[in-house]
């Protein structure tokens, strides 16, 4: 029996510390009994909890209040304090002086008018009942009775009532069913005519909740309560707010009831008094309730979850993450709660809802809600008993939980919620309380053991779930109310409003002696009576079904997994049978299979079978195999080892061994140490407890069972225990049942046996741990560096028992042992400390005596030391083993002039993310990892080696890249690999898309690796450009050459050619120099700080240049001639001459007829350093004005002509972007210029004249502007009227800023064919605008912002958005990572590659470049000139200008022309190759910017779309891409012609060539190579003379260049031709004599061999064959090009004789499907495409279709072209028709042939013409309709003679000679179509 109440206390208001404040404090007036009970001392601080908001006087009498506060004492016992508070008037003597403040406060309280006088104050008084039992209703009734007796003045002695209350005893809870009604429910009376029935719960462990859970859900809702539930389980701080104290208590009680079967063990204060609010900032978790009055104080709590019960909200701070329940449990719980709380929800949508069902009562609903959570816990913790380790049975059970195994078997290793719950204090309590195998069981034990199957079956059937919930709820309800029939209370209550009546007297002081006497009487009676202790009904706790039966194994089971296990078994049996060759073949497959969990388990089982008597001696090869497989198994183990793989291998690593020499044995453990699992304390603890359990179980099994006990089982996981008859828990349960019956001695004996079992296991584990933690070579402390540092592991632990002695003991014994050895102390010391900590922890938890523990501490250092000594012998002997035959180093072949800087360092080349080399998803052999060496030469970094995979055979793997292309070098440390442990590695990435990921062999010291890095760095960033390979190749001193230092003031002059020096002296001047933004420093200054201005080198330009040098009429001085001659030979001049832009001589004589002239103004590089010496400018511009114009442009790069269209005579100009004060700045100015015009204005005026001169120089516009050569005529007029210059017209049709990149499609659209109507244009004919501007200026959008349109100008600004160089760099970096990923992605899908490719935005940049270029081509083609003026004029400008010329002019698509284009636009016009390629030390920080590469990629895209238009092949583009960064040639070095002259590169080349054999120029090399081999030639080349290319630029049309992705591991990059030729084919003599020649077939691997070399195209093959035959016949072999040209010519003439009418080409049939012009380029497909994409965005089918531009010039071929016969063609109908030309071309008469057989309409120039000019495929014709005449149609013809043929691509407009003929053509066409 237990006391109902321990103490009764009367607490009253007492004056506070601050007199007169109205604040008081509680005072205990009386307490009963006065002496503390022995078993239960009086709790302190009750006064605070009686009035949690503080003791205050009140102006009126409040109704009595009741609530229960909970206090927790130091032993975690909860005391329930029931407080009933009522108010009594204050006696005047007692009342403090009331301050005004308090009156105000009082006035705010709404209340019925007080009965007493208005000044009367009331003080609270509280009756408190303190109990350890939670019977809220009984307490409320009892205190209510006492109050009623007092208020109503009943004739009952209060002392008697209180005495009875304190002596009342009730039955102890517990027991399955009460024996009798009396014992389970007790009726009590307090002697005031009252009666109460107290029912005790059936099971003590189940919490009592009344209605609190249901109320909690009502107040907060499902989601919020679930969030609080998860927060409480994962140990977050929870704070409840409410105005009602009783509600706070209920909410806290409800939340705790939900947590069952876990008990909340942190701070729990349902009602927190105001004085203790600082408790809220405690760091530990808590559940606390606080009155809403103090909400403000809770605002600044940052990590507290606040639940507002009155408002129904839960606020989770940002910094708090509450892990949700794992799915599907979360959604199942949610739906079950909905069913309970809102049964109507299921019926809400029914058409005929059933009559309203009665909802269950609140108390019942409360139990149903708890049942849902009970089910949730049963599902969460199902099978938990199978993961319990019983460590001790006697004297008390010690139980540990194997967390990792539980999570692994449940497949929830990653689940945040479950992990946190299992690590929490509540779960630790759960294990120690419920893990006990023999105890009383309750509802939860039954549920988790027996109902799990049912719950799985019910999962998707809501009605069955609800039924189960209701059954559980019944049991919970029955537990709380075992006797529902007898709950009849009879308790007096005070009358209505009794608190308002004037109380007859205050609560009396009670007589202590009376109460004490009643208590003493009862105590004496109880002592006489026998103790009423009911025996607890203990039983063995059911374990439920084993985990495997519950949880389906996670992870998809592969269909072929059985096959994999078979492979693993076979391999192991081969190893042990000694069939090494067979095993070797299977090993790669086994290693791959071991990624799967089943295979790893299978391996451990198989290996167990081969261990006899704990030992298995192997030979060296077997040992190597077994170790490799073990390592493979372990490398995927996490630190937790949740699948028990490491646990299963632990006994094996100490079993397998090999004899190294007599007396020296090496065990497998010395080779498998490099895994994180061995340094994880939790792993060792779980293993230790598992083994202890096995041995303790064996201890108690009968001898018969013991035979097949532990020995057969080994020391494996619990998996095997399931098969045994009785699990360890069953054995323990049986022993606990027998324990009380045993004699004292027997008990003692068992305790000692168990303790010594644990002790012996601890010694065993100290040994095992030293095996796996001490490295073979203990002098190296590598182990500690590689692992998670053994020193930091004190904090990590698997269990929750903390012990104070662990740390101190470890330290003291360690030092006591006196073990100290200088060499090994660091490793040994760390291992000793690690083992000591482990021993401390497990022994303290397992109850080992302190003597034993001390003994262990003394032993550990000796064990470690002993082991180190045996290891030394093993290490020594293992070094003597015949070394694994390392392959001999293969020396790479070098180029002439290339020298080795560092000889081979032995390395492993590791696989990167490109899966071809590692035999990834494509299958194929794993070429990587390869074992070999890395060489560093003056030119390249080269790896050569052999694959480590024995199945690949003797293939040589080569990977190399030029040193100069290195973009990133990164140190990496590499995991253990193959058998040896590898040291650090290096990852080198190059911009030629190569990645060398190497790990240094152990023989390579870290110093050698460091030397390699330093040399590499020195070669990559030489101090100056002369240190690069292009200069040093073949020279004697290859070591890093020092830059020459000179003492002269102007060092750059030393290397200037003498002619230049003489001339430069004339142009010395300073003023202009300082104004430059960028002045490229001369190459020798690069490494040094830039000199100050007064030391500026002397090539600069004066303001007033001498008239003699600049007047165009004066002849050149003889000294200038030499310079001029060399300048004239430059590419620019040759091209100007070809384009008809004039020669120097003609320009000097100023032939006025020519609109443009060549000016030598920049021959001294004085105006612009980065321009060539000779430039094309308008004829009318004087040289002396160019100086001023140049100032308006960045880097002085003023507009110059670089190309002229031969057809439209439009010119293409290029320049740098404008400075702010240039033309744009001028037009931005809003106000009129001040009278004194500045220099800037005048130069802007010059600039205007310059642009006008360009416009005037064009034939179309020269007449329009005649008489107005400058714009002065109307500028003055406009300046008068507007006060500013007219602004450059941005667009007649749309406002400036909105013009995006799509301006191209707009300009190309139909609306341009109609002349725009500019608003307010002047009326004189000179200003009538043609339909297009004469000059378009393409500029940067940012630079042209705010430019307002003005229709009067003849030029128009096209603002476009360009990307900056830094964006190109960033994009390139991402492209590199996408194409050459650094590490193998786990499951790299093609999608991830495509995603990273998209994120790089590289193709978007290509798209923008092509788009802008096509726009410019369109403008030039339509006769408008274009000035490209972007950034500084040397990056994107160069890209665009070069692409435009390539697309517009077929000449640049030849080998010679492309060279000229690159020389002119990229080299002469100063693209900064050295700066962008970071060639020298100075450029190291700026990094590599692939501007030229981007241009070549664009050319490659165009080449793909128009394969017949280019003379050069794709290989040529790749060759340039590789060599523009390789530094093998000098061509792409330095930033401008000026710098090349300084270094003497430009003119001395000719002299040098004779002396040195090596090519200095890439062009020369290409030329030489082209003579030998057609590798740069494109056989499909069949150009059309006037073809302007307009490629598609959409990203969907672009392809990723295979230069980025393809590699050949057989020979390295194929761009150094001499090296790439490789070994010749085996000669034919090798064939066996007399036999037929062997097949020449050989296997080639896509990533290893060069497919093009192994299988060249047919023509190359034929040419080679021809050459071979000629050689055999002894004839001098002809050059391949001559042969090819001859064959082509012969074929053409043949075709003509045959009367063939198709464009003749040798390859016509194979090329038939390639795109010619605007047809789509289909890569595969036998027939011509019927699909065509148009470039225009706004096509219209009006009378002037914009699709006219699509190529009707020559057809994409048709189905029959390859089957042409020699007879003349089939002509069904023919005649002359007029046809409208494409896009702005006139009508022309053509001879048309309708061919029914081929189903096509062909046309020719005239009747006898054999060359077909075009084909209209009738398959593409959609309709034939009558047409209308358009502009330029034949005048004399009848309107009805016009008809249109509409195809899928465009509309053709035709006109016959008369109506009759037209009708005939239409009929014939219609019949053809209908026949089809």
Largest sheet: 7 strands, antiparallel
DSSP, total strands: 43
The amount of beta strand, in percent, is 5-15%
Global Rg: 49 Å
Low-confidence stretches: 96-117, 175-182, 549-559, 704-724, 781-824, 976-980, 1036-1119, 1225-1240, 1262-1330, 1548-1557, 1623-1637, 1700-1768
Task: Note down, in words, how this protein is organized.
The protein is of the alpha+beta class. Helix content is 38%, strand content 13%. The strands form 11 sheets. A 7-stranded antiparallel β-sheet has the order 26-25-24-23-29-28-27. Strand 37 and strand 38 form a beta hairpin. Helix 31 packs across helix 32 and helix 31 packs across helix 33. The longest helix has 31 residues, at 850-880. The radius of gyration is 49 Å and the shape is elongated. The N and C termini lie far apart (107 Å). About 20% of the residues have low confidence.
Spell out the blueprint of helices and strands.
Blueprint: E1 2-3, E2 7-15, E3 23-32, H1 46-50, E4 55-56, E5 65-72, E6 78-89, H2 100-108, E7 122-131, H3 136-152, H4 158-167, E8 169-170, H5 181-184, E9 185-188, E10 196-199, H6 212-220, H7 222-233, E11 237-242, H8 245-259, E12 267-269, E13 286-291, E14 304-308, E15 313-315, H9 329-341, H10 344-347, H11 362-380, E16 388-392, E17 398-401, H12 403-410, H13 416-423, H14 425-434, E18 438-439, H15 443-450, H16 452-458, H17 462-480, H18 512-528, E19 539-540, H19 547-550, H20 561-577, H21 580-593, H22 597-609, E20 616-618, H23 620-635, H24 645-653, E21 656-661, E22 664-667, H25 681-700, H26 703-706, H27 710-713, H28 728-738, H29 744-773, H30 782-786, H31 805-816, H32 825-845, H33 850-880, E23 900-909, E24 930-937, E25 940-947, E26 957-962, E27 966-973, E28 984-990, E29 994-1000, H34 1006-1020, H35 1029-1032, H36 1058-1064, H37 1107-1110, H38 1118-1128, H39 1131-1139, H40 1144-1148, E30 1156-1159, E31 1175-1178, H41 1183-1190, E32 1200-1204, E33 1211-1215, H42 1223-1228, H43 1239-1256, H44 1259-1262, H45 1272-1282, H46 1303-1308, E34 1335-1340, ...
Parallel strand pairs: 11-13, 11-14, 12-13, 20-21, 33-36, 34-35, 34-36
Antiparallel strand pairs: 1-8, 2-3, 2-7, 3-4, 5-6, 6-7, 9-10, 14-15, 16-17, 18-19, 21-22, 23-24, 23-29, 24-25, 25-26, 27-28, 28-29, 30-31, 32-33, 37-38, 37-43, 38-39, 39-40, 41-42, 42-43
Helix pairs in contact: 3-4, 4-18, 6-8, 6-11, 9-11, 11-15, 11-17, 20-21, 20-22, 21-23, 22-24, 25-28, 25-29, 29-32, 29-33, 31-32, 31-33, 32-33, 36-38, 41-43, 47-48, 49-50, 49-53, 50-51, 50-53, 53-54
């Amino acid at each position: 029996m237990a006391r109902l109440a321990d103490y009764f206390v009367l607490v009253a208001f007492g004056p506070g510390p601050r007199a007169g404040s109205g604040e008081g404090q509680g005072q205990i007036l009386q307490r009963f009994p006065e002496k503390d009970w022995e078993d239960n001392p009086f709790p302190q601080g009750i006064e605070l909890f009686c009035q949690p908001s503080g003791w205050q006087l009140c102006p009126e009498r409040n109704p009595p209040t009741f609530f229960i506060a909970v206090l927790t004492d130091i032993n975690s016992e909860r005391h329930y304090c029931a407080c009933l508070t009522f108010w009594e008037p204050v006696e005047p003597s007692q009342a403090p002086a009331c301050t005004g403040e308090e009156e105000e406060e009082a006035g705010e309280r709404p209340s019925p008018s007080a009965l007493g006088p208005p000044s009367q104050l009331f003080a609270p008084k509280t009756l408190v009942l303190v109990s350890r039992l939670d019977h809220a209703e009984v307490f409320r009734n009892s205190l209510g009775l006492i109050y009623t007796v007092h208020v109503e003045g009943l004739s009952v002695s209060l002392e008697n009532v209180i005495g009875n209350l304190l002596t009342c005893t009730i039955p102890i809870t517990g027991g399955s069913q009460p024996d009798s009604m009396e014992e389970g429910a007790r009726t009590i009376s307090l002697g005031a005519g009252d009666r109460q029935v107290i029912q005790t719960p059936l099971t003590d462990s189940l919490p009592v909740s009344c209605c609190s859970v249901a109320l909690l859900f009502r107040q907060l809702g499902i989601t919020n309560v679930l969030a609080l539930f998860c927060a409480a389980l994962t140990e977050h701080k929870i704070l409840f707010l409410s105005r009602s104290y009783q509600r706070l208590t209920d909410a806290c009680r409800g939340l705790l009831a939900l947590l069952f079967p876990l008990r909340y063990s942190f701070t729990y204060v349902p009602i927190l008094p105001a004085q203790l609010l600082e408790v809220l900032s405690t760091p530990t978790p808590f559940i606390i309730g606080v009155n809403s009055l103090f909400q403000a104080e809770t605002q600044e709590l940052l990590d507290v979850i606040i639940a507002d019960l009155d408002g129904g909200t839960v606020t989770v701070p940002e910094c708090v993450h509450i892990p949700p329940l794992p799915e599907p449990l979360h959604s199942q719980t949610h739906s079950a709660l909905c069913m309970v709380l809102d049964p109507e929800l299921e019926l809400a949508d029914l058409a005929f809802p059933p009559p309203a069902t009665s909802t269950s009562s609140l108390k019942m609903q409360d139990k149903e809600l708890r049942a849902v959570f009970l089910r949730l816990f049963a599902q969460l913790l199902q099978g938990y008993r199978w993961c319990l380790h019983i460590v001790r049975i006697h004297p008390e059970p010690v139980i540990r939980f194997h967390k990792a195994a539980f999570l692994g078997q449940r497949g929830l290793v990653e689940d945040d919620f479950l992990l946190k719950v299992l690590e929490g204090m509540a779960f630790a309590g759960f294990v120690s309380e419920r893990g006990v195998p023999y105890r009383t069981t309750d509802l939860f034990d039954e549920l988790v053991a027996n109902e799990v199957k049912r719950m799985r079956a019910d999962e998707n059937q809501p009605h069955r779930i609800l039924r189960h919930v209701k059954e559980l709820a019944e049991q919970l309800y029955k537990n709380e109310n075992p006797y529902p029939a007898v709950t009849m209370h009879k308790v007096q209550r005070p009358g209505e409003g009794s608190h308002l009546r004037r109380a007859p007297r205050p609560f009396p002081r009670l007589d202590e002696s009376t109460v004490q006497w009643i208590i003493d009487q009862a105590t004496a009676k109880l002592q006489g009576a026998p103790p009423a202790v009911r025996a607890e009904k203990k039983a063995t706790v059911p374990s439920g079904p084993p985990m495997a039966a519950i949880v389906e194994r996670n992870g998809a089971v592969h269909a072929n997994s059985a096959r994999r296990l078979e492979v693993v078994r076979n391999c192991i049996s081969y190893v042990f049978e000694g069939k090494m060759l067979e095993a070797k073949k299977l090993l790669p497959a086994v290693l791959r299979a071991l990624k799967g969990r089943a295979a790893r388990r299978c391996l451990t089982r198989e290996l167990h079978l081969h261990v006899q008597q704990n030992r298995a001696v192997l030979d060296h090869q077997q040992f190597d195999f077994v170790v490799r497989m073990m390592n493979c198994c372990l490398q995927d183990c996490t630190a937790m080892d949740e699948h028990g793989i490491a646990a299963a291998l632990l006994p094996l690593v100490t079993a397998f061994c090999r004899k190294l020499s007599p007396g020296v044995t090496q065990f497998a453990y010395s080779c498998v140490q490099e895994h994180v699992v061995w340094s994880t304390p939790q792993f060792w603890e779980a293993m230790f407890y598992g083994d202890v359990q096995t041995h303790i179980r064996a201890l108690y099994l009968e001898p018969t069972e013991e035979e097949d006990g532990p020995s057969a089982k080994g020391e494996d996981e619990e998996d095997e225990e399931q098969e045994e008859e009785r699990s360890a828990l069953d054995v323990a349960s049986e022993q606990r049942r027998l324990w009380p019956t045993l004699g004292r001695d027997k008990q003692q004996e068992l305790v000692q046996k168990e303790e010594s079992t644990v002790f012996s296991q601890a010694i065993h584990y100290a040994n095992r741990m030293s095996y796996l933690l001490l490295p073979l070579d203990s002098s190296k402390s590598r182990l500690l560096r590689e692992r998670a540092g053994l020193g930091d592991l004190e904090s990590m632990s698997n269990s929750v028992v903390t012990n104070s002695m662990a740390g101190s003991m470890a330290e003291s014994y360690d030092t006591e042992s006196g073990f100290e050895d200088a060499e090994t102390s660091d490793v040994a010391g760390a291992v000793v400390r690690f083992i000591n900590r482990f021993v401390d922890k497990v022994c303290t938890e397992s109850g080992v005596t302190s003597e034993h523990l001390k003994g262990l501490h003394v032993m550990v250092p000796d064990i470690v030391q002993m082991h180190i000594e045996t290891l030394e012998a093993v290490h020594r002997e293992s070094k003597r083993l015949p070394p694994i035959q390392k392959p001999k180093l293969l020396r790479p072949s070098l180029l002439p002039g290339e020298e080795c800087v560092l000889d081979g360092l032995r390395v492993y080349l590791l696989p990167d993310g490109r899966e071809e080399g590692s035999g990834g998803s494509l299958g194929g052999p794993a070429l990587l990892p390869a074992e070999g060496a890395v060489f560093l030469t003056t030119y390249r970094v080269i790896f050569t080696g052999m694959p480590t995979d024995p199945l690949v055979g003797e293939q040589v793997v080569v990977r190399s890249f030029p040193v100069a292309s290195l973009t990133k070098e990164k140190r990496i440390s590499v995991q253990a690999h193959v058998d040896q442990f590898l040291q650090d590695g290096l990852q080198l990435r190059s911009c030629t898309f190569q990645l060398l990921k190497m790990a240094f062999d152990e023989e390579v010291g870290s110093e050698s690796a460091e030397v390699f890095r330093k040399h590499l760095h020195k070669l990559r960033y030489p101090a100056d450009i002369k240190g690069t390979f292009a200069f040093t190749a073949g020279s004697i001193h290859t070591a890093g050459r020092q830059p020459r230092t000179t003492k002269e003031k102007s060092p750059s002059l030393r290397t200037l050619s003498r002619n230049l020096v003489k001339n430069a002296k004339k142009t010395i001047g300073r003023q202009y120099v300082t104004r430059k933004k960028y002045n490229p420093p001369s190459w020798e200054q690069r490494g040094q700080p830039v000199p100050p201005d007064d030391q500026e080198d002397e090539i600069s330009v004066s303001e007033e240049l001498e008239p003699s040098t600049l007047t165009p009429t004066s002849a050149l001085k003889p000294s200038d001639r030499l310079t001029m001659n060399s300048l004239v030979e430059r590419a620019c001049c040759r091209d100007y001459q070809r384009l008809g832009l004039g020669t120097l001589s003609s320009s000097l004589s100023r032939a006025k007829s020519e609109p443009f002239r060549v000016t030598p103004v920049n021959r001294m590089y004085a105006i612009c350093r980065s321009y060539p010496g000779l430039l094309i400018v308008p004829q009318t511009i004087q040289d002396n004005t160019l100086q001023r114009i140049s100032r308006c442009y960045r880097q002085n790069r003023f507009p110059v002509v670089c190309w002229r269209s031969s057809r439209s005579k439009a010119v293409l100009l290029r320049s740098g972007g404008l400075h702010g004060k240039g033309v744009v700045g001028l037009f931005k100015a809003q106000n009129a210029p001040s009278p004194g015009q500045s220099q800037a204005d005048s130069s802007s005026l010059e600039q205007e004249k310059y642009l006008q001169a360009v416009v005037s120089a064009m034939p179309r516009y020269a007449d329009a502007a005649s008489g107005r050569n400058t714009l002065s005529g109307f500028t003055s007029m406009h300046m008068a009227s507007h006060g500013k210059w007219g602004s450059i017209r941005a667009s007649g049709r749309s406002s400036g800023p909105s013009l995006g990149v799509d301006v191209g499609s707009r300009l190309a659209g139909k609306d341009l064919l109609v002349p725009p109507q500019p608003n307010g244009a002047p009326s004189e004919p000179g200003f009538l605008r043609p339909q297009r501007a004469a000059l378009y200026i393409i500029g940067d959008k940012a630079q042209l912002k705010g430019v307002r349109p003005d229709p009067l100008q003849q030029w128009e600004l096209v603002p476009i958005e360009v990307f900056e160089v830094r964006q190109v760099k960033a994009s390139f970096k991402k492209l590199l990572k996408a194409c050459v990923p650094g590490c193998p992605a786990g499951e790299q899908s093609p999608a991830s590659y495509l995603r990273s490719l998209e994120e790089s935005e590289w193709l978007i940049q290509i798209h923008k470049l092509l788009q802008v270029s096509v726009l410019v081509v369109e403008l030039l083609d339509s006769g408008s000139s274009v000035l490209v003026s972007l950034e500084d004029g040397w990056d994107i400008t160069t890209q665009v200008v070069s692409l435009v010329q390539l697309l517009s002019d077929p000449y640049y698509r030849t080998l010679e022309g492309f060279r000229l284009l690159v020389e002119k636009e990229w080299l002469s016009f100063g693209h900064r190759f050295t700066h962008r390629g970071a060639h020298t030390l100075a450029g190291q920080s700026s990094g590599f910017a692939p501007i030229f590469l981007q241009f070549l990629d664009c050319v490659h895209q165009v080449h793909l779309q128009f394969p017949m238009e280019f003379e050069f092949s794709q290989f040529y583009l790749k060759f340039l891409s590789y060599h523009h960064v390789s530094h093998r040639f000098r061509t792409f070095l330095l930033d401008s012609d000026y710098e090349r002259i300084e270094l003497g590169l430009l003119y001395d080349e000719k002299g040098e060539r004779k002396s040195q054999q090596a090519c200095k120029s890439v062009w020369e090399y290409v030329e030489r190579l082209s003579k030998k081999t057609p590798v740069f030639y494109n056989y499909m080349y069949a150009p059309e003379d006037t073809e302007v290319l307009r490629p598609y630029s959409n990203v969907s049309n672009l392809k990723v260049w295979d230069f980025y992705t393809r590699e050949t591991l057989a020979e390295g990059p194929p761009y150094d031709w001499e090296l790439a030729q490789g070994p010749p084919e085996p000669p034919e003599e090798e064939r066996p004599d007399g036999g037929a020649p062997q097949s020449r077939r050989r296997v080639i691997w896509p990533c290893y061999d060069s497919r093009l070399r192994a299988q060249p195209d047919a023509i190359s093959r034929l040419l080679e064959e021809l050459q071979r035959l000629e050689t055999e016949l002894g004839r001098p072999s002809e050059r391949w090009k001559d042969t090819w040209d001859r064959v082509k010519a012969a074929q053409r003439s043949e075709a003509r004789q045959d009367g063939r009418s198709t464009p003749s080409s040798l390859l016509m049939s194979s090329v038939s499907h390639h795109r010619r012009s605007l047809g789509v380029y289909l890569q595969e497909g036998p027939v011509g495409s019927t699909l065509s994409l148009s470039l225009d965005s706004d096509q219209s089918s009006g009378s002037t279709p914009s699709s006219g531009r699509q190529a009707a010039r020559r057809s994409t071929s048709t189905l029959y072209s390859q089957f042409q016969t020699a007879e003349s063609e089939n002509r069904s109908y023919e005649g002359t028709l007029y046809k409208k030309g494409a896009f702005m071309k006139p009508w022309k008469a053509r001879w048309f042939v309708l061919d029914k057989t081929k189903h096509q309409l062909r046309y020719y120039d005239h009747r006898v013409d054999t060359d077909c000019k075009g084909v209209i495929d009738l398959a593409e014709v959609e309709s034939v309709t009558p047409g209308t005449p358009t502009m330029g149609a034949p005048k004399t013809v009848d309107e009805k003679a016009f008809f249109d043929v509409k195809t899928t691509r465009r509309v053709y407009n035709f006109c016959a000679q008369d109506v009759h003929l037209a009708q005939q053509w239409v009929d014939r066409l219609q019949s053809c179509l209908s026949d089809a």
